[in-house]
UniProtKB/TrEMBL annotation:
Keyword Transcription: yes
Domain HTH luxR-type: residue ranges: 185-250
Organism taxonomic ancestry: Bacteria, Bacillati, Actinomycetota, Actinomycetes, Streptosporangiales
Recorded GO MF terms: DNA binding
Name the UniProt record assigns to this protein: Regulatory protein, luxR family
Iron listed as a keyword: no
Record key words, sorted: DNA-binding, Transcription, Transcription regulation
Single biological process term from Gene Ontology: regulation of DNA-templated transcription
Annotated organism of origin: Nonomuraea solani
Residues annotated as transmembrane: none
SMART domains xrefs: HTH_LUXR
Amino acid sequence: MRDPALRREGKAVTATQWASAVLCNGLGRYEEAYTAAERGAEHPQELGGPFIRSLVELVEAAVRSGRPARAAGAARELDELAQVSGTDWALGTSAGARAQVSEGPVAETLYREAIDRLGRTEVRMTLARSRLLYGEWLRRENRRVDAREHLGIAYEMLSRMGAEAFAERARRELQATGETVRRRTAEARATLTAQEAQIARLAGDGLTNPEIGAQLFISPHTVEWHLRKVFAKLGIASRKQISTTLLRSTA
């Protein structure tokens, strides 16, 4: 067992490298992410959380930087730790890592397992990133409609959390499927009146104009008039785009 002071220092170094790897993975700077994650994963397992999270980043960075063997090794190491832990977060994270080094139906099954398990946890960032990875995989498989669903959810979640780098990655992937997504900005949201924002949220939740009107005690015609203004202000063309553009985070 290490000296306690050395362990604290090691944890600090590992946490710093992990944070750098997360940032670089979000920005698509995978070589830098790989270097940081590899350094973060150099320390022994006694370092706990930062070490395990560095392995997670290492898998993604290694895959994206063309190091499949290293990615597979890190995924196996992560899975061994997950089996010992047995928590939904650990097993879900492991499934997501193994999905990235798998192909075809096996990869899809693992992505779905990751999303299912992580959906039972409160670690929303990990869930959102799993949605992003699955959506990216679906797009590469030319399943654009399926990809849009998961990329849209990922974009919404990541934007809400302020994870701008990953949100932008999701936005670019959505664009690659043919979906037009405006960057979420405070300025765009600020231009909506309180009633416009309320109507937009309800429309994004799938309510029809008559249903929205009944809730707000206004006519369907008035709802439509407000929605046209929402579309113009947010730069969208249909109500199907509201949930991913407005993200239901305005009040």
